[in-house]
Amino acid sequence: MQYKETEIQVKVGDITNVKADAIVNPANSYGLMGGGVALSIKEKGGAGIEKEATSKAPIPVGGAIATTAGKLKAKYVIHAPTMVEPAQPSNIRAIKKATLAALKRGSELGISSIAFPGMGTGVGGVPKDKAARAMIEAIKDFLQETRIEKILLIAYNQEMYKAFKDAMKNLGGGELI
């Protein structure tokens, strides 16, 4: 769907296979990539991504850093913590902050496309529907003042896809692409 001047797409897939300027890692503040989306990014993109992320740590919840994407199709990995400690429970507030921080970092990098997984829904333990709503609220807030050409919401399963699709209704109007 179109929202403001941004195309927002929801797709089922593996974020590490997405072709976008940046993919988002729902990180921890230390930049360690030992589980969930982070581990998949490290395994497919290379250990150098984690090495670069940890060299820029600590990253506060509400902050975001960018690293190279190694062997991935993206140009950057944006690490936006949804938790301080690795494998710590996350929450709605942290997900909103992380989503907004990733979008701001992407904007600072001049990217035109960014891909998000379900932030905080893996090791963070936040229910998919609540996380998706928090992410959409943050995206909507960001797009009031700034523009990114394309935002991709990448669901790793049908349950996450449905959560993203239902949350998109909060944007009002338009059909999902």
UniProtKB/TrEMBL annotation:
Matches recorded under InterPro entries: Macro_dom, Macro_dom-like, Mono-ARTD/PARP
Domain of life the protein comes from: Archaea
Family annotation (Pfam families): Macro (PF01661)
Annotated ranges, domain Macro: 1-172
Key word Glycoprotein present: no
Keyword Glycosyltransferase: yes
Alphabetical UniProt keywords: Glycosyltransferase, NAD, Transferase
Gene3D superfamilies attached to this UniProt entry: Leucine Aminopeptidase, subunit E, domain 1 (3.40.220.10)
Name under which the protein is recorded: Macro domain-containing protein
